[in-house]
User: Fold these one by one.
Assistant:
Number 1:
Amino acid sequence: MARHTPTYTPIRNYSIAFLLSLSIFYTDISFQTFAPLRGIVNASTLYVQFISRSFVENISFTFASFKQNKYLLKENKELRDQILQIGTKDFIEKKDIEEKIQIIGLRDTLSDTFKSNGINIFKIASIDLTNYFCCSSHKVFLHNPNKINVEPNFSVFAGTSFVGQTKRTYMNFIEVILLSDREHVLPIKSDFFYCDARGKGKPMLISCKLNYQNDDFENRIGDNVFTSGLGGIFLKDVKIGFISKIIPITSNEIEVVITLKANPLEENFYGIINKDMNEI
Amino acid sequence: MKFKNHLIVLSTIIFGFLLDNYLNQFTIKFFLELNFGFLIFSYWVFAIPEKIQSLAAMLYGLAVDLFFSNAIGFNMLFFVATSYIIHLYVFRFRIFSYFQLSVFFSGSSTFYIACKYLLLSPNNYSYLVLILSFVVNAILWVGVYLMMRAFRRRIF
């Protein structure tokens, strides 16, 4: 009697599939070979979401119209139209004013900070919340309906501080890599140290390793941290956060954890400086 | 298997990953990562092994990678490997109890989560996430199994 049940599992096919998958995975994590493909898929998904949302709204509006009693429709059509118009207008105006105030506020902050008016404001299209809360990859897509030419590696501002830099553009969307992304490196400075802070892969946290003793950082928690401008992407002396934790690694090495000032989840609008204005 | 049926299987897997994507942003705060997508894929291989083999597993993985992953190849790799292991022991699994099946499939799903964190997000690796996810995914497996079985019997 056979001890094993007979199964047909061709090892050769599985080995080929396994090796192929492995090589694709390796090339992608090492060299980002398929990053453009992923970006295009992401942008297309966002497009489909936008289109389907407006399609569903139209359909539901049509169905709602059919459901109305004909008599009521006839009698109240004008009145309801007027009320709807006024309500919609009111809502849009209110929303418009709120958005305008936000945009003006952001533009003013950017103008004050960079002493320049060549700033483009973009509305957020999507943020990958699952990855933002759990994993290393922290990215935001911005809506760019006017297809403004935005180059990669331009600093992105939101609220009152930097939040990241542009990575690529796909169709009408701009991919922004946030400061807390594990791949992002930001040159920073404090009163007494300079370092290249890497994203921690956790919301609003970056960190850098320094050759200091833990005692040197006593009472330093809460100190402000600024951009040093050494990377050539971010302007210097912009406050980006504060020291929130000191973790000793060895007797002569510590990790300084910095909590960022700008929270991408609370921002609707993001500012990017024009290409011409960015050139010195 | 017909192309239409492959599309049905793939849509259920994608639905699982969509569910994960939506729920995990809330559950991860409690050190819990749900893995419906992987469990649904495992169910399909377990239920119709003769129809889902290496190529299908690889293509499903590719589709999931394109829509949900940060690196193409990760799900391909795991789908192919899981599919191979399930194929090897598929008839033995048939005589397993629900509990044994839960432990196996939840274990595979926890291994998947552990590798995902180790390879793609090492800073966020946490044993607490793995332990909690193992327990919760083991419970979820029974629900996924029963629901997917009912769905399969109605569709195929």
Note: The two ends of chain B are 10 Å apart (CA to CA).
Number 2:
Amino acid sequence: MNDIIFTAVVIAIKILIVLAVTLGLGAYLTWYERKFAGHLQARRGPTVVGPFGLLQPLADGLKLMTKAPILPRGVDTKLYYMAIMMALVPAIMLFAVVPFGPSFKIMGHEIKPIVANLNIAILYVFAMGSMAAYGTLFAGWASNSKYAFIGSLRKAALIVSYEVVLGFAALSVILLAGSMNVFDIVNAQIKSGVWYIVYQPISFILFLFCLLAESGRVPFDIQEAEAELVTGYNVEYGGMKFGIFPLAEWYLNVLALCAIASVLYFGGWAGPHIFGPFSGFIWFLAKTFGLLFFVLWVHWTLPRYQAKDVVEFAWKYLLPISIINLVGTAFFIYFKG
Amino acid sequence: MPWASSQTLDRIKHAFRKITIDTQPNFVCLNVEDTQEITNILKHLKDIEDFRYFIDFHVIDFPKEKDRFLGQYILVNPYTFERLAVKVWFKSNKLPTAKEIFPGAKWAEREAYDMFGVEFEGHEDVKRMFMWEDYKYFPLRKDFPLGGIPEQKLPSLTEVLEGNTFPPSHDYDIMHTYVPNMKDIEKTEKSRITKKGQLVLNWGPLHPGTHGTMWFLFDLEGEHIIQTDVILGQLHRGMEKIAENLHYFQFLPYTDRMDYLSAVCNELSYVQAVEKLANIEVPLKARYIRTMFAELQRINSHLLWLGTGALDLGALTVFLYAFREREKIMDIIEGNAGFRLTSAFLRIGGVHYDLAKGTLEVAKYFVKDFYSKLKEYHGLLTRNRIWLKRTKDVGVITQEDVYQYGLTGPVARGSGVAYDIRKIDPYAAYDLVDFDIPVGDIGDVYDRYLVRMEEMYQSARIVEQCIEALEKMPENEPYVNKKHPAVIPPKEYVFNDLEDMVKSFRIVVHGENIPKGEVYSSGENPRGELGFYIYSIGKSSPYRLRIRSCSFYNLSVFPKVIYKHTISDAVALLGSIDPVVGETDR
């Protein structure tokens, strides 16, 4: 009985911490991105609000929240509001299977810094990634706007093609680790002493493509494409209703997928113990943010593909490569492993 | 001089006995007597004499003549670069259409109908070009008053709230010209396109992809465009009408506001047209200053194209890199003219101010730095795979399109037509500097991109040579030809010299009469050939001033090229055509 209460309390605390950290991080990622983009573009980024413009996300949030709520004519009200939830919730849910560090002991209990230690964690990630597409689709359909509609259709086409590639790319890692549990995957990498990026460089590159595509970042931001579709599916949303979409898609989704990528390919929290007891956590965050940095770098440098090219690229090149890679890995494991 | 030679004229005269030839120093035209004959003559000129490059069509209104309207075509032979005007009177307001011979005439004829109410036989869908459907008047006719016809009450807010007050709450007339309402706009939209595909996408009038208030209607089948129409006129200000009612020098600042990204180039085109008409010599220093600023402006304008074009295709950072360099050019222009964008720097007979102190050093430093910056842009885009994928073989404009639609500037050169006014009819100091004309190969978006990038490089070269020449000149060299009676003397003389003060007063108050005659003169703008046709009857303001807008004609090929391409291609194509609405609408 005591154990159950203890577990419940621990899980509640974990959920609170994860929620606070991810939402806070999500907001502060906007600051990070703006600063980063500013320096990349020979300007300084936000500087006015707070020291180094650190209070800028708060100011932005305040501004978005105080906007007049506008409901465009002809919208499907239920779907219109549901779309916001459908975009935000899967993005946050992704963090449930992110292991933030190695397990540790408190009062004789082993605690794993993960909200839900599922044994099908990677499948769960795919599921949530696909769920996020509904947010976009609903938003595009409910808005009663042609721009939003075209944007959401593009997103649907993109998700359908890249989910498949994502699955095959991650499968080869799962084959190597022999498990879908994130802890097992990281422990397998620590045990063998080699990060899976060494064995699976192709799979990692495919995963990166899918990461960019799923989170709507350049060069795959066809559903937003501001020069063609203004901002695509969220064009009819205003105020904080609008703010949720980029927060979920551009920040939370990217952050979660970067975390998963560091688990799959960079050994999660593995790294030399040079930061004392928090070493694992710091390594994990460093890897995640390193990947994030790369995503932003790409975003602010490259032009974007055309919608038809993006999908063609996935089916014609990425999918065959990922299947060959998977089969190759399977043969390798069967004969050598 | 690129006007048709006497041999050519003789040959044409020989083929058609009925026409007369009128040769002026800056204008050569055929007068066609018979309206029905015009189609044959145009065909002959196009096929036999190779005047296949359509430059312009416009109408002049003579209310007192028997046949009220005079239509005028301007054609160019793209092989010998001879230019020729063909004049024809409208018999009973009607002229056979030329759109079968030159598709570019389609829009020009629509504009002529819109502004003069003339009709074209065989042109079925003559619709309004700039005004809305159901607009009742034809504004460029001489009997249309400059202020418009007041027919609608537009009360002020005070009047709405409190009724008529005494004294009145404002000092303007409550009656106003008719302002179009939503119904008119919707009717205009409906009349332009009959839906054939799955959905009609309204692209504009305010849309980030159009770079201005341009309104596209895309009829989409999936993402493919099967029908397009462009609704122009959101920025129509009636420049040509305004010019007819102003003294020559007063119109100069208006030209800034046409293609607002290349103000100095616009001024240069206008100023040299007036100078040719009035026979004004321009001092060498002024010519060099004009060239230098025009080229700086060209770099400036191309940088904006580069930035926004890349932004349209998703490359966000190039935009700010381009603006960083633009800022430096803006500073140079501001330091000399006092304004950044609409600079009004040039004057008839010279330039407004002498070079500001230190301009040459700053410009020199800028050019030196600019070469490395240009390399940076190349590094970001030129061999980028995504960039190639988006621009190669997209929006191909053939040479035939260039001739028939009257495309000029980088759009023409991208398709391999080496038509550059700076070379074939050198103005300012372009005959004294050395530069090359880049031409493209197949005429896709990528070719136009490369042409513009190379043009920036060549412009930098020209600026360098101008700086060199200007540095050698003595300091008190004249920068304006103030001896000519039509030139306003510079302010320093006006304040210190009685004679100049009187002259300044006279010109500013009464204007200076310009001799009778006609001139068509054009300059190479960053977007193409900006031509000014001036018909002078010896007054201080033109009887008719026609602006041959490069953006307008360049845009006219858009519906043809975009057929069966996607919206994403439309963005890329529009970016590479680079129209400025201030100039398409005027």
Note: The mean pLDDT of chain B is 86.
Number 3:
Amino acid sequence: MSIAIELAYLIASILFVLGMKMMNKTKSARQGNRLSALGMFIAILATMLQIDAISLVEILACIVLGSAIGLYYANKVEMTKMPEMVAIFNGFGGLASFSVALSDYFLRTEVNMQSIELVTVISIIVSVFIGGLTFTGSLIAYLKLNGNISGSPITFKGQHAINLVLFLGFLTAAVFTVVDQTDPMLIIILIVIALILGVLTVIPIGGADMPVVISLLNSYSGMAACATGFILNNNVLIVAGSLVGASGIILTQIMCKAMNRSLINVLLGGFGQTVN
Amino acid sequence: MSSEALIILIYILVLASFLGFELIAKVPPTLHTPLMSGSNAISGITIVGALLACNEMGYTTISKWMGMVALVLATINVVGGYTVTDRMLKMFKKR
């Protein structure tokens, strides 16, 4: 990778940090958001130059399509529906990291027929797990806020036990994937469990707590991007991903405090609600 | 990946995480939602990964298609995320 592209990534990272810092104050917040958008633009441009994207028509087509959808909904949505919008965009971000991880997995195992390094396999598994969970979790958060499904907590007996069993199942399949990388059945099991866990962890949480959940899922999508950075050995993904991952956790805590709720209480929604 | 390269990546991860913790310590409640939305747009950085995943000729592999799906989704996240955040913050200024 050329030094110019690495420098562009460095500038992008600096702009993300500055932008985020400026978003702490009402006065400079809008400027901060634009600075961060500029950073994103630089990162995208540098990557497109690196892969010579002009010759790949489908890349431009995907970007045009994504931009059109994003712009349309971002401009159409009413101000009161903002949290829903953030939730669904966040879900797409998680699904994107998930898809990049799988794309890389299939490239290595089916196209190039090569074995994958341990660090890369683990990063792929982490990205699939967090990305998939973020997607379905955000989708449920969106549907709850939008009123498509009941905003009240949906709980059933043995919920936490089922989550635990699924998680252990995921870990087991993950270990087998590390041992035998080429078995697509294992990857499918990982995908399915990650998607189900996203649903199961968000449905027991009440509608009023959704902003906190969205903030937490936002943090997760940062972590998923970070894991993707480890797969692709890409610095800007790791910097931006861990910035969002860490600040998202803190923001979630701050929001919980502002709402007089404890984070644990929100996450174990089933328990918290029955006590009330 | 050599262990030296891995260590550098872990350094980056750890230091950026600490920076993330410090960056938003004193944010006023009115800025919670815009900040969440703004950092959500930043997490769309995975678009860089999506672009790299698309970098493959032909349309015959799952890998290529997953990359293209990722690119559309990540673009929605980035473009939509920044636009929505800007709209929220624009409203702030008028008040």
Note: Residues 3-91 of chain B form one domain.
